[in-house]
Input
Amino acid sequence: MTTETFTFTVNKTDGAARTGEIRMPRGVIRTPAFMPVGTAATVKAMYPDQVKALGADVVLGNTYHLMLRPGAERVARLGGLHQFMNWPYPILTDSGGFQVMSLSALRKVDETGVTFQSHIDGSRYFMSPERSIEIQGLLGSDIQMQLDECVRLPCSEEEAERAMRLSLRWAERCRIAFGEQPGKAMFGIVQGGAVERLRIESARELAAMDLKGYAIGGLAVGEPQEVMLRMIETVEPHMPREKPRYLMGVGTPDDIVEAVRRGVDMFDCVMPTRAGRHGQVFTKHGRMNLRNARFAEDTRPLDEHSKCTASNTYSRAYLHHLVRSNEILGMMLLTWNNLAYYQELMAGLRKAIAEGRLEDHIGEIKEGWVRGERDSKAEIGQHADNIAMPAEG
Output
């Protein structure tokens, strides 16, 4: 049941892990949740009704890309992002800060905001914390993110501290600009690089602002997984327990499982869609590259037990052919499989937390990956043997 206000309820815990619900006018988000990324008002290679049918309760839109093309004001004139992309359910928009830092060739950051050049045509733009919130409002976003400065890791402690303090000041400006919007939310973003004291200070300062939710940003940007997990463990005790926690831009299935174990509620990542467009699939048997020659005559589906048509119907041989031929259908089917797997992964984690058996469930998930990798290596060896065997006679 939806509500006219934004609410978050933790229904069950298992260790640090939680399962719950975010309720808002456009729908209910079951947590832990994976949000498919719809960068330019589309989850690439997927129909919106497919995305919903897989179990996604919310998708992510990208402020930077949408402000450049087609433009936030135009989207507003066309009825808002939900109507524009035919997705009547919750939408979270990021602030655009990460893309400004990573995509813009020329940029200048100061107290007022960021001046940058478009990666499309080189035209100049200025984004302040207030303008970021304004754009997200024009898009009609349900969950809006503060503008922050995301630094690449590794970086110096001085650089991490400068960006963290600037992000805190911008968070307060975003909070004021957002104001009171019934049924919607603005989340703050914890920064601080890989420095524990900075992460703790950022989390505490943001918690004092009494925002609707909190994200952990600036991770999954090239640092080892153990650094990312240590930062989550550092921050978690200082994040309000009654508010949702969002780990931005994460990640692999293993990253997600480990972060859920540590109390994270929300995730987004381009990995399942991007990998699908490049011949990579995620399954309960682990990761596979359908470009590999060993799949050329493999008549098995990706996962015969999956409920997803892309996973249980088409042979690996056919998918291999589509990928090697650069056929659009291959990209569509592999993306479909990957998003189905991610949603099945989340549903399984929610169920395991509710039943108090998360650790056993994670063990089963990881055993499936290990077994699949072991079987794959055996198949590769067998395939190589077959190729090397001389013809009889």
Notes: Residues 385-393 have pLDDT under 50 and may be disordered.
